[in-house]
């Protein structure tokens, strides 16, 4: 079952084995977030283009990372990032980061969604990091309703989604210890998509889920 959304923010030439593990896990992946330089960067990167091509050939969604700075970043800059992701890496979706949870900015993100669809983004993921207003489900394929530590995730009581069932919920968890069952907890909390990694600190997404390093532990 394709339940893993993997944001892996390391260069393929520096971590080739990890990228090989991601490509090998293609049947289990909902998608992979491509993030060459906190976005697409200033010029094409051949190593990222190569791995993106391999992922797409394996049937994996490739989502271009773009920071929206909670609505403060100009829409033209966001769309420029998405266009470069498409042109340089063949991305077929977008992962919009730092999205606010309140309804006040919804119209701004609705316009961004229309622009994203216009440049070929077939899948739109919004990373709120917390449960957003249900209106965002009208424009997204996936809503990231949790991003945080394993300790915080375990302590957080289940929060039933008040919106409709047409959107997938995603939980991104870091600081996960060996032997934990983040996938089981994600299912219990209504997340159809998830990623749980051992990394901590300012750059947890430079690590992979344990099961990608140990395929025999995969469900």
List keywords for this structure.
TIM Barrel, 30% helix, 219 residues, disordered C terminus, single chain, alpha/beta
Reported for the largest beta sheet, the result is: 8 strands, parallel
Assign the CATH class: Alpha Beta
Given as residue ranges, the uncertain stretches (5+ residues, pLDDT < 50) are: 215-219
The largest sheet has its strands arranged as 1-2-3-4-5-6-7-8
Compute the number of helices. Answer: 7
- Summed up, the domain count is 1
Give a structural overview.
It is a single chain. With 219 residues, this protein is an alpha/beta fold. The chain has a single domain, classed as Aldolase class I (TIM Barrel), CATH 3.20.20. The chain contains seven helices and eight strands. The protein has an eight-stranded parallel sheet. Helix 3 packs parallel to helix 4. The longest helix has 15 residues. The chain is globular, with a radius of gyration of 16 Å. The termini are close together. It holds the Pfam family Spherulin4.
Quick gist of this model?
With 219 residues, the protein is of the alpha/beta class.
Which secondary structure elements does this structure contain, and how are they paired or packed?
Blueprint: E1 4-7, H1 16-24, E2 29-34, H2 46-57, E3 61-67, H3 75-89, E4 93-97, H4 106-118, E5 123-127, E6 142-149, H5 150-155, E7 168-174, H6 182-188, E8 193-196, H7 210-213
Parallel strand pairs: 1-2, 2-3, 3-4, 4-5, 5-6, 6-7, 7-8
Helix pairs in contact: 3-4
């Amino acid at each position: 079952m394709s339940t893993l959304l993997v944001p892996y923010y390391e260069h393929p030439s520096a971590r080739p084995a990890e990228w090989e593990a991601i490509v090998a896990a293609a049947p289990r992946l909902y998608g992979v977030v491509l993030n060459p330089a906190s976005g697409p960067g200033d010029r094409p990167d051949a190593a990222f283009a190569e791995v993106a091509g391999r992922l797409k050939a394996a049937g994996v969604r490739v989502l271009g990372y773009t920071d929206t700075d909670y609505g403060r970043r100009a829409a033209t800059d966001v769309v420029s990032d998405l266009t470069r992701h498409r042109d340089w890496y063949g991305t077929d979706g977008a992962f919009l980061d730092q999205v606010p949870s309140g309804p006040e900015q919804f119209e701004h993100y609705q316009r961004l969604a229309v622009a994203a669809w216009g440049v070929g983004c077939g899948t739109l993921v919004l990373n709120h990091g917390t449960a957003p207003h249900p209106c965002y489900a009208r424009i997204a394929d996936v809503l990231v309703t949790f991003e945080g530590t394993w300790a915080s995730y375990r302590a957080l009581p289940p929060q039933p989604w008040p919106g409709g069932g047409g959107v997938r919920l995603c939980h991104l968890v870091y600081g996960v210890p060996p032997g934990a069952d983040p996938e089981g907890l994600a299912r219990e909390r209504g997340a159809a998509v998830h990623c749980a990694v051992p990394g901590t600190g300012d750059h947890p997404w430079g690590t992979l889920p344990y099961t990608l390093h140990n395929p025999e532990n995969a469900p």
